[in-house]
Amino acid sequence: MSLKKIETLKKRDDLYLPTGDLKKYANLSDKSIYRRANRNPLKFWEKEAKELKWSKKWTKVFSHHPPHFEWFSNGKINITENCLDENLKTRKNKVAFIWEPEPIDEQARKLTYGELFTKVNEFASGLKELGVKKGDKVGIYMPMIPEAIIAMLGVARIGAVHTVVFSAFSPQALKVRLQDTEAKVLITTDGYYRRGKIMDLKKNADTGLRGTKVEKVVVVKRVGNKVKMNKGKDFWWHELMLKHKSKIVKPVEMDSENLLFILYTSGSTGKPKGTCHVCGGYTVQARTTGKYIFDWKDSDIFWSTADLGWITGHTYSCYSPLLNGATFILYEGSLDFPEPDRWAQIIEKYKVTIFYTAPTAVRMFEKYGTDLVRKHNLDSLRLLGSVGEPIDEAAWEWYFREIGNSKCPILDTWWQTETGGILITSLPGIGPFKPTYTGLPLPGIRVDILDDKGKSVKPGQEGSLVIKPPFSPGLLRAVYKNPAKYLKTYWSEYGKKIYFTSDSAIKNKQGLIRIVGRMDDVIKIAGHRVTTGELESAISLLPDIVESAVIGRPDEIKGEVAVAFVVSKNTKKSQKAIQEEVIQQVRKEISPIASPKEVYIVQDLPKTRSGKIMRRILKKIFSGEELGDLSTLANPKTVDAIKKIIRGLP
Ligand code: WTA
Known about the structure:
Distance between the termini: 68 Å
Strand content: 15-25%
CATH architecture of the domain at 3-77 and 262-446: 3-Layer(aba) Sandwich
Strand order of the largest sheet: 7-6-19-18-20-21-22
Helix content: 25-40%
Bound molecules: 5'-O-[(S)-ethoxy(hydroxy)phosphoryl]adenosine
Radius of gyration: 24 Å
Shape: globular
CATH superfamily of the domain at 3-77 and 262-446: ANL, N-terminal domain
Structural class: alpha/beta
Number of strands: 32
Number of helices: 20
CATH class of the domain at 3-77 and 262-446: Alpha Beta
């Protein structure tokens, strides 16, 4: 059945519901799945797990020793056997992904499941020659090119653990991650394209490697810029692949609870947290969520715009579509380069059927103008997805109307780096869809919204979003080498048996969940997760800076941006010079993506008598909100001074 001619959604009050035709088409349309799965989540997940290839079946589905838990204990699996070998049986010649390079005049590349299988095996064999063994950590610092996916799968095939570091992260950010994981090998490229410019990634990698345990570096020639290759340490990817041509590597049998990857996310201090994801549960969750949420059919062309350096990239720009034998797009560049409508050109060119992006991108598309969208035929689209931050009603409506032509359900997907896969969203064949609500928790996922005392709040009331046992198979098992942080961040707020998400949320009468925002110091800059603590510790490294405080403020396009308040002891430097130094420092220590939008130089920061900086007050000054009682401050006068500075008064 073609979806082109059928009515897909009907509106009832303020809800959008799938029509009978859409229900018929969907992988899941029977509402009773919620009841059944919630009554017995273990049975639900076990049934899903059985659809995968395991070399040995588990002995127990779920065990819980709070705060620790396991899924599919003693099962043996390799994710790449499921992504590749299993697909060879029926989809050898099906395209796994189409790679669209940033330069418009460069040829796209298509890799079939058969070709991907061959490449991953060759690379896995090469990695073995470099001495990588099961359990070893391997860093991946690469742009969005096919080799990045081959690298991730090659590492996983031999039972090693990948840590992907976003290519726009600074050498310093790379270093911290490589030091924490003690990676032995790094895979990178000579460079990459960013809005037409060549970025020297190898140089960044070399700088980041200093002081780490990395012994060998594999370098993909992507842009052909001149790079320094260190003899005995640096190896060209193409030479390694040639040497291992046609080699087949048996997937290494992994225990369900063995590490599959470590992905870092911002910590509340300067040090990022390594979230640990395991082989069994992650694989089950990645496959199941994709199958039901993105509802893949053999004819679909799926495009998740997320970079592989983030969790969305790991799960939905790589593993989940491969586990489901789907065809997807991997795009190297910026969505608005070289033309603002590059993204629409790509949808049109490849007849993308399912498009998954972040609200910040949607707002950017809208800003460029609706006329630009209307130039393109986007009729192929049947589902739209959103992730990473709340999507406001205006952006939702525009996305729905202008991109989806009022016929595509919007899957507003809530999840986190920690959860490994989507946990809350309404399903295409079931719905309902309501602007600003992410939807229902997936079948088998028990979430709740609690007040300070740990009691469930009533519909319509705000509280903290938590996940109750048995959680989800893909939820993180640890913070790498930091059990205290694991316990404190996720399992302390409501005790060791309840996972605390750090998000506040509201449930309506229909059970739909609306995410209000983070309760901790995380800010989402264009969907990228950064903590104010991390920014402050980077800024405080500057010799002239006495102290600093960073807050997030709303931004029309990026959702949120960082604003820094700094106290400088250098009275001779101009304001402009200090501001520039602060911005450069964040770029150097973290990444350009985290750059503060505004930097204010102040004499003092509002503090309590015990010396705690009151960021809340800064936020209120900034937004013009009522400040309330300031008598608890040690230095209430500073508030007026800061107000003047913000308003540009002398
Ligand atoms: C936020 C991204 C509203 C939330 C996959 C969460 C969302 C944090 C949504 C995790 C959504 C994610 N609506 N907020 N649909 N999805 N968030 O680790 O605050 O980069 O805790 O993972 O993003 O961000 P992370």
